[in-house]
Write a structure and sequence with these properties.
Number of domains: 3
Strand content: under 5%
Helix content: 55-70%
Distance between the termini: 57 Å
CATH architecture of the largest domain: Up-down Bundle
CATH class of the largest domain: Mainly Alpha
Shape: elongated
CATH superfamily of the largest domain: Fumarase/aspartase (Central domain)
Radius of gyration: 29 Å
């Protein structure tokens, strides 16, 4: 194949000089899937341009009249984006070029002034940080809704006993109150990581240019205020070095949430199976078999498990992408979008579907009445002897010997007296809610 047979079929770019052009195959390879993900950044690119041009007017690079024209059309473009009617032209390389071209078409040469003091490098950096900041807040809200559901389920089913397992062996009595509450508390630690990711994304790289600043007297503090960032990436080199690193840190937080969901999904796959039979769901929330008419498959939980396991691989994938790059911008960073952005959407979907399923969960009654769970109360028998003054080691040996001889006749105790914090009889859900609210306040 002649890679250059279409050399005459080339597309001009905003950054190209007179007489230069790019081969069509090079164009296709270097742009890749960028246009697909640039649409997600469109509103944030406009917001960045609104802030940047407002700052340019304060340092004399735009007149008030020019700024008014630019802002009028930028806001018109923003409304088109928000209405879902925006698209990138076939012959335009990226979102930055598209918006500048639209402005130039509508208001003439003034539109070409908006790039003063900027590089596409700091444009995409600020777009991604604005996008990630907004997406983190949406994920936070999804997690909070799911947390509230788990706490409500925990309270509703706190008296429903459940066998607890270690090594997948029957261990000690648990409860659905304890089980739901465990996953609720797990989300608190996950949000601690999400807060950290939010704080990293909440720093303004705009004004760092290609990574080495500008000879224009840019007021980066002003654009930081306009874009409602908490602070800025001060060092212009580091502002560029934060590309990839920010995405990786966000992916670590997403991975933590995904790990909690994956474990919960695995529990549900076990508990719904006939060998356990602890829970069930309405027929419309499960799927069947093409050959076995009795099947009610937990496909939703299996897919949540699979998707969340894949999300947990994203930090490693980003590490392999950005590892050992020297300082400065590199085109490698372009691929972070196609790795991370779909993962964000998948995590939100998994949270929403997990909520749907648990809203409709059905819990079986009297699970521990089954003969196979009689030894689950052996620890209660040991503790009863200890309460009568028998040393723990002797009590343990006595009950163990009874079990070995097969003459263990300890009566199944349904009224368990567990009172310490975080036990069956004292879930401490109010304390867990308090801790969650503490974490949520860190986003403010």
């Amino acid at each position: 194949m002649d890679l250059f047979k279409n050399a005459e079929n080339c597309i001009m770019k905003l950054w190209q000089k007179d007489g230069s052009s790019v081969n069509e195959l090079i164009e296709k390879f270097t742009v890749g899937r960028d246009k697909e993900f640039d649409l997600l950044l469109a509103r944030y690119d406009v917001q960045g341009s609104l802030a940047h041009t407002q700052m340019l007017q304060t340092i004399g690079l735009l007149t008030k009249e020019e700024l008014d024209h630019i802002h009028l059309e930028l806001n018109n473009i923003l409304q088109t984006i928000l209405a879902g009617n925006f698209a990138l032209d076939k012959d335009v390389e990226d979102i930055h070029s598209q918006i500048e071209l639209i402005l130039t078409q509508r208001i003439g040469e003034i539109g070409k002034k908006i790039h003063s003091g900027r590089s596409r490098n700091d444009q995409v950096a600020v777009d991604i940080k604005l996008y990630l900041r907004a997406e983190i807040e949406m994920i936070r809200d999804e997690v909070k809704s799911f947390f509230d559901l788990l706490i409500a389920r925990s309270e509703k089913f706190k008296d429903k006993l459940l066998p607890g397992y270690t090594h997948l062996q029957v261990a000690m009595p648990s409860s659905f109150g304890l089980w739901f509450g465990a996953y609720a508390e797990s989300l608190i630690d996950d949000l601690e990581l999400l807060v950290a990711a939010f704080n990293v994304a909440n720093k303004n790289p705009l004004g760092s240019g290609a990574g080495y600043g500008s000879s224009f007297p840019l007021n980066r503090t002003l654009t930081t205020e306009f874009l409602d960032f908490e602070t800025l990436n001060y060092n212009s080199v580091y502002a560029q070095m934060s590309r990839g690193k920010t995405e990786k840190i966000v992916s670590m937080a997403l991975s933590s949430i995904a790990a909690t969901l994956s474990k919960l999904a695995m529990d549900c796959c076990l508990y719904i199976s006939q060998n356990f039979g602890f829970i069930s769901f309405p027929p419309e929330l499960t799927t069947g078999s093409s050959i076995m008419p009795h099947k009610k498959n937990p496909d939703v939980f299996e897919l949540i498990r699979a998707k969340c396991n894949r999300i947990q691989s994203i930090p490693n994938e980003l590490t392999l992408l950005i590892n050992n790059l020297p300082s400065g911008y590199h085109r490698d960073f372009q691929l972070t979008k196609e790795i991370l952005f779909p993962a964000i959407e998948e995590l939100k979907s998994c949270l929403q579907l997990a909520s749907l399923m648990l809203n409709n969960i059905e819990i079986r009654d009297n699970i521990l009445d089954d003969e196979k769970y009689k030894y689950i109360f052996s620890v209660e028998a040991v503790n009863e002897l200890v309460n009568k003054g028998v040393p723990f080691r002797e009590a343990y040996k006595e009950i163990g010997n009874q079990i070995s001889r097969g003459d263990f006749n300890f009566d199944y105790k349904k009224q368990l007296n567990h009172t310490h914090e975080g036990s069956i009889g004292n879930l401490s859900n109010d304390k867990i809610v308090f801790e969650m609210n503490k974490v949520l306040k860190k986003f403010l």
